[in-house]
Amino acid sequence: MSKIIAINAGSSSLKFQLFEMPEERVISKGLIERIGLANSIFTISVNDEKYKEVMDIPNHEVAVKLLLDKLTELNIIQSLNEIEGIGHRVVHGGEIFNDSVLITEEVVEQLIKLSDLAPLHNPANIIGIQACHAALPNVPAVAVFDTAFHQTMPESSFLYSLPYDYYKKYGIRKYGFHGTSHKYVSRRAAEMLGRPIEQLRLISCHLGNGASIAAIEGGKSIDTSMGFTPLAGVAMGTRSGNIDPALIPFIMDKTGKTADEVLDVLNKKSGMLGVSGFSSDLRDIEQEAAKGNNRAELALEVFANRIHKYIGSYSARMSGVDAIIFTAGIGENSDLVRAKVLHGLEFMGIYWDPALNKIRGKEAFINYPHSPVKVLVIPTNEEVMIARDVVSLITK
Ligand code: ADP
After folding, report:
1. Closest Cα partner for 50 from 74, 25, 18?
2. What is the atom index within ligand 1 of the atom nearest the CA of 280?
3. Taking the model in full, what pTM does it have?
4. How far is CA 277 from CA 142, 158, 244, 256, 298, in A?
5. Phi-psi category of 98—alpha, beta or left, where left has phi over 0 and alpha has psi -120 to 50?
6. Is residue 19 over pLDDT 90?
7. CB 358 within 8 A of CB 305
8. Exposed e or buried b per residue across 192-217, where buried means at least 16 C-beta atoms within 10 angstroms of its C-beta
């Protein structure tokens, strides 16, 4: 039995889950928000009890120290010595990391270099790693990358049709993200289907605030919708997904915005928020659409329609598909989005049951038994994947 903590550090937040391994039992989890701002919020839950405190947390080091203090103060653990490993979610592993890795000084240096590719994410992940190292210098730490699972993509999938030199000189290629989630649900799908993953062609739809689709053949990612950054692919809560690149200078010209400002619009003011004009949150969009709001209905259609087309495209890429997987906030909970995505796909052997589709937040098959292609809802669990990788790397 050992206790492993999984950390997901963002620029102003830090999420954590403490696991008892190998049982994979969550002992405690929580979130620190508004780090570096006034009135930071610390939330931690143990057994079904929630503890919340508002205070000023100036930086990630203070946040980590506070978290560790609370774990003992609230008797969640008796001593920090009980923590045997730390797992950090890291967004970008570039082409260097195709799997999780034990963190050394050299690894941190490589992560710093990779920040060039993920300036919004990697620096925050590194701060989280350093803050944990300062607090628990003797506890081994592991980095688990969002990009690693997609490193199996063939060159024909990851290469952009740009001058080849750009790939070699600047690392311009598709990396893909949400890899830990796609990997987790694809493994679970194989277990649920009772078939070896090596024999399966899966399409995994991770639909949260960020959304990406992955084509997984024989357990390996062979293509995915996100690209050089998490902006590409399907429409998302606030991100545009794929657009005609010539629109960027056109928008700059029409609005007087700089390239960075246009990029900000594509990242933060587009997607369902942009189309609906009022919210990026699917629950709000669904509510308004039910009342007859046309723009909300349109936002839903745009969102679902892109995913629907990826299913066709990735089925072609794999010469067929055995199962479609829905996961993350929207994929796990929205029967409406799932229905729109799956609509009209009977021609390719997808027969889904509207009654079973009502399921929310639970593992389930939503296809009719005779459907050649199965459709699964699988709640994702990136944290348990992190904890598993920590255990396997620290016991090697
Ligand atoms: P993140 O990418 O931030 O991890 P999540 O996976 O939590 O995102 O997904 C957030 C999205 O899931 C939001 O659009 C939210 O509206 C949607 N969502 C969560 N619960 C439900 C629900 N019960 N019904 C419909 N949509 C939901």
Report:
1. 74
2. 14
3. 0.95
4. 41, 33, 21, 21, 11
5. alpha
6. yes
7. no
8. bbeeebeebbbbbbbbbbbbbbbbbb
Q: In 3-state terms, what secondary structure has residue 378?
A: coil
What spacing in Å lies between the alpha carbon of 328 and ligand 1's midpoint? Answer: 7
Distance CA 13, CA 128 (A): 10
pLDDT digits (tens, 9 = 90+) for 103-114: 999 999 999 999
pLDDT of residue 46: 86
d(CA 77, CA 74): 8
Candidates 146, 223, 322, 389; catalytic one: 146
**Catalytic residue at 116?**
no
Question: What's the CA gap between 81 and 256, in Å, rounded?
Answer: 57
* Angle (CA) 377 383 388, round 5°: 105
Ligand 1 atom with the shortest distance to the CA of 334: 25
CA 87/CA 209 separation, integer angstroms: 23
Q: Quick one: 280 exposed, middle or buried, by C-beta within 10 A (0-12, 13-18, 19+)?
A: buried
Whether 192 and 363 have beta carbons less than 8 Å apart is answered as yes
In the three-class reduction of DSSP (H, G, I as helix; E, B as strand; rest coil), residue 333 is classed as: helix
Tens-digit pLDDT profile for residues 27-75:
999 999 999 988 999 999 988 889 999 999 999 999 999 999 999 999 9
**Going along the chain, which residue ranges are E strands?**
2-9, 14-21, 25-33, 40-46, 49-55, 83-90, 101-102, 141-145, 201-207, 211-217, 220-224, 323-327, 364-365, 374-377
Kindly state if the Cβ of 17 falls inside 6 Å of ligand 1: no
Contacts of 101 (CB under 8 A, 6+ apart): 107, 142, 143, 393
> Would the CB of 299 count as within 6 Å of ligand 1?
no
Strand partners, 42: 32, 53
Nearest atom in ligand 1 to 330's CA: 12
283 CB near ligand 1 (under 6 Å)? yes
Give me the mean pLDDT over the 253-274 stretch.
97
46 backbone φψ class: left, alpha, beta (φ>0; ψ -120 to 50): beta
pLDDT, tens digit, for every residue of 291-337?
A: 999 999 999 999 999 999 999 999 999 999 999 999 999 999 999 99
